[in-house]
């Protein structure tokens, strides 16, 4: 059984570099290699939706030098991988407070998202300047305003209303949530969408998370029985 939607908290770049006596930027650079490998393996495995937690809204509190390196890496990686993304029929998507990102990155995202909008093989979503609490808060504000202006009737209010106002309105709920580096928390990532997702944590740091490791996660998922609160 292959999960339809896999989401990954890519954690451990800094610790990977520290363990090797290297600056944190080397961890981020090697983390890019893991992204390429995992996207390729997810594609081969038939996963329809892959969402990667690339930059949280809390990450803005990191040193400015590290943030600049991360943003530059994102821009260069998108440029380098555009042809492969397009040729493999992958649709690029981005969620989060995108307007808060550097203009160069926003421009690159807009270009690739527009060019791949008709692709159907797999949807690759990058969570950038993203926070689950903030996403729900923004949805509540928009919905409240629509209720106030009689655009939404409370009598017809249900989960679908909330879903349609989230960043992920065009994505299904998460089936498998993977976290690297051994941490056991979701870190404000897809809170609503992961309510009944299967959780898989590994002590492997993100730069070492490769095809073998994601196959282990998929194998673990395939051996579980999802009950959604029932018996």
Give your account of this protein's structure.
It is a single chain. With 231 residues, the protein is α/β, with parallel strands linked by helices. It contains 7 helices and 6 strands; from the N terminus they run E-H-H-E-H-E-H-E-H-H-E-E-H. Helix 4 links the parallel strand 3 and strand 4. The radius of gyration is 18 Å and the shape is globular. The two termini are 20 Å apart. The model has no long low-confidence stretch (mean pLDDT 95).
**Unreliable residue stretches:** none
Count of individual helical segments:
7
Query: Structural class, judged by helices and strands?
Result: alpha/beta
Query: Which descriptor suits the 3D outline?
Result: globular
Question: What's this, in brief?
Answer:
This protein has helices spanning 13-19, 24-45, 64-87, 103-115, 132-148, 159-163, 211-222; strands at 5-9, 49-56, 90-95, 122-130, 176-179, 198-201. It is an alpha/beta fold and 231 residues long. Helix 1 packs across helix 2 (24-45), helix 2 (24-45) runs parallel beside helix 3 (64-87) and helix 3 (64-87) runs parallel beside helix 4.
Furnish the topology, listing elements before pairings.
Blueprint: E1 5-9, H1 13-19, H2 24-45, E2 49-56, H3 64-87, E3 90-95, H4 103-115, E4 122-130, H5 132-148, H6 159-163, E5 176-179, E6 198-201, H7 211-222
Parallel strand pairs: 1-2, 1-5, 2-4, 3-4, 5-6
Please give a handful of descriptors for the protein shown.
alpha/beta
